Amino acid sequence: MDQSSKTRTQKAVSHLSSLTGALVNEPTVGLHRVREHGLRTIPELVRLKDDLVQTSTKLENVASILKDTAQTVDDMRGVSSFKDMANMADRARESLREYEFKAWLES
Question: Which of 2, 33, 84, 91 has the lowest tally of Cβ within 10 angstroms?
């Protein structure tokens, strides 16, 4: 073998060796990257999940309060004393308007 053939063969073997090393190490590098990604993102995902659970609990409490309030308001609509008070307030406003009108006429 002449010198240039030896040099080309050595370069080819060197490149083949580098390529083989890269192929052998690639799964390890890939798994390392996946592991690091998991270590970075999983704590954030857990925090977000906890925040969602807290928000969901708060919303359930508010929904329960709103439901109870709506039921109370519906129950109050049928109470006759509230209707009587509303009628009395209407009559009082009407009387006040009449009094103000009479006072205006007399002035």
Answer: 2
pLDDT tens profile 43-75: 999 999 999 999 999 999 999 999 998 988 887
Q: Does residue 104 form part of some domain?
A: no
Cα angle 32, 15, 33 (rounded to 5 degrees) comes to 10
Domains in the chain, number = 1
CB 84 within 8 A of CB 78: no
Using the structure block, give the residue that is written with the tokens 């006072």. 103
Q: Is residue 99 part of a domain?
A: no
The label of the residue with tokens 């009082």 reads 92
User: What residues contact 76, with CB distance under 8 A and at least 6 apart?
Assistant: 82
What is the C-alpha separation between 95 and 77, in angstroms, rounded? Answer: 25
Local confidence band at 18 (pLDDT 50, 70, 90 cut-offs): confident
Q: Which residue has the tokens 């060197």?
A: 14
